Amino acid sequence: MPTEDDRAWGRGAWVVLLWATFTASAFWVAGGYVVDDAFVVFRVAERVSAGQAWAFQGDAPADGVTAPLWGALLAVWARFAPAHSTALGARLLGSACVLLAGALVLLRVGRRAADGAFVSDPGGARDSERTRRYAALVLGVQLPLVVWAGAGLETGLATLVVALVSGGLLSDVGAGTTAPEELVSAVRGTGTGRGARLLWLLLASVSWLRPELVPVALVAGWYAPRSGALRSPRVHAVCAVLLGTLGVIVMRIVVFGHPLPLAALAKPSDPLHGLRYVSQALLVSGAVSAVVVTWVLRVRLGTDAALRTTLSSFGPLPLRYAVGVGLLAVTLAGGDWMPAGRLLVPLLPLLAVCVGSALASLPAHRALAAVLTLALPLLTGLAALPGLRAQPRAREVGSREVLRALDGATRVALVDVGHLAYAGGFEVVDLGGITDLEIARLPGGHLSKRIPETLLRQRGVDAIVLHSSLPARVGPAPAGQGGALLGLAGYPVEVQVARMPFVQEEFRVRAQVAYAPDYHYVVLRRSP
Known about the structure:
Layout: H1 4-29, H2 38-49, H3 68-80, H4 86-108, H5 125-140, H6 143-149, H7 155-164, H8 181-188, H9 193-205, H10 214-222, H11 233-256, H12 262-266, H13 271-285, H14 287-301, H15 307-312, H16 317-333, H17 348-360, H18 366-405, E1 411-414, H19 419-424, E2 427-430, H20 437-440, H21 453-458, E3 463-468, E4 473-474, E5 485-487, H22 492-499, H23 501-506, E6 507-516, E7 519-526
Parallel strand pairs: 1-2, 1-3
Antiparallel strand pairs: 3-7, 4-5, 6-7
Helix pairs in contact: 1-4, 1-5, 1-6, 2-3, 4-6, 4-7, 5-17, 9-11, 10-11, 10-16, 13-16, 14-17, 14-18
């Protein structure tokens, strides 16, 4: 006869199944968005699979992949899968990882203690199920999770690794039970010597995927469920994180000659930008709305309405610690240029549990609070959906026209080195520095490098591709030639390159391609 534990497990499984079905459908609805930087990883992976050096171009090993573990996995895919299917492999693997990560985190809500007692509030399984339902609702409306799962980068895998090491962070969420004990033991990654070693391996892998997640891994390791077979499990877990970080640093020094990813050199940290980045992501996720709504309702209901009490309802302290240090790490790292808060996506399942816990803890009006919390992520997601669906087709058409204008070019200077270089097969001068150590070390940020004119001359550049948010101004064109570039609304580094006497004298506009309403490519070719 089914026990209460079995019935609770079944109800939890149905919630997770519904979330997974909805999210898998969203993968299809959102279209085939692949971010431009992912094609850098694809090109490196395909070169490695063909026996060439780990490099974007050339015969010497060179960095350019922030997540070596992800690059290695895609190299294995490229070695055994059909040709030119790396993007498909990345999309499938990333999407599968996100589905597993979300399901795992939701299943862990309200996990039973080892002695069979409920591990937190006296509300029992009912509170646990309510928390899980709200967490699933919050996670289900996170469009960034869907977009970045299949965008080609390591985000999906990083999300899964964070979920796998977060058992201790979720052990006091809600109450009740989520699964038979053998499944609980399996997803914990602890409890036996073999499980503990698996946990250490996962903790060590974090720095090989996303450096800014290392503080989260340290907190997760510190609060990991203890194994009775080990002494000082916290020390073991923290050492695993630190050794993994040391390992990737040593690897970069030995192989590439420098300890940091090229992206870190090319894009110096700007904490002010990072603060805006994190604030915007929290606002769009509904987390800020949840704080305001739950606090206001507590005031209206006459309960303990102190803001501190409201914040304490956002899950147990270890979970809030982990999310907090993750947000701080991304802030100090300066965020990045990519849309939809990519660097925070691995934290979204944990953040959804925090918000779900706060909604479930309200004594009344929980449905109203959920509607108000979910409104902003739903509205922003629906507004962004048409652009996402149009992006793959726009890239295909735009890239074809740009490559037609680049026909015969051997070395092209540009910022968007990903898809164009991947599809065109030419060598590049990376104006942003994410694949070029010399340019990465130049003064300026990722899109504002101060590149000397002599560098373009010495590299033998015979074509330049610049971007402009408006159609560029082009001078009159002599018969059989293109006109001189007079001005464009591009990134600072592009404006600087366009103004170089070398470019003004020796390059002419071959084509302008409207990639999107506010994104135009300007192709310049060296005049005979």
